[in-house]
Amino acid sequence: MSDPARIADDPRFAELRGAYRRFVFPVTVAFLVWFLTYVVCSAYARGFMAHKVAGNVNVALVFGLLQFVSTFGIAAAYARFAGRRLDPLAAALRTSAEAAAPVAAAPAAPTTDIRLIEESV
């Protein structure tokens, strides 16, 4: 059985995929809803989006800046989640795959005849 097939049959791989999906799918849906709310409000709720919050800062500007904040927040949350939950599972799978893989001979180091280089110069 090849390495990819052996890894795909490992229950830890199914656990890894499940953990990934349980984080990524809900967060993606939540972000898309948040983004589409911003877009729809910008197109159809112009009065609401033009409402001044402080000085010349309006709701549209705040929502736009919050898009960046939420993006960086999601990236930070994913990095933390992956470090705690996904990386240990992936490392265990990698270790078992490397232990089960046949040891391949290292390729020979390329040799260069210095005389050929000197003659061509």
TrEMBL record:
Q: Which PANTHER family did the record assign?
A: INTEGRAL MEMBRANE PROTEIN-RELATED, MEMBRANE PROTEIN
Q: Does the keyword Cytoplasm apply?
A: no
Q: Which domain of life is it from?
A: Bacteria
Protein's name in the database = DUF485 domain-containing protein
Species of origin reads Catenulispora subtropica
Q: Where do transmembrane segments lie in this chain?
A: 23-45, 57-79
- Keywords, comma-separated and alphabetical: Membrane, Transmembrane, Transmembrane helix
Q: What Pfam families would the database entry show?
A: DUF485 (PF04341)
InterPro entries this protein is in?
Answer: DUF485 (IPR007436)
Asked if the record carries the keyword Membrane, the reply is yes
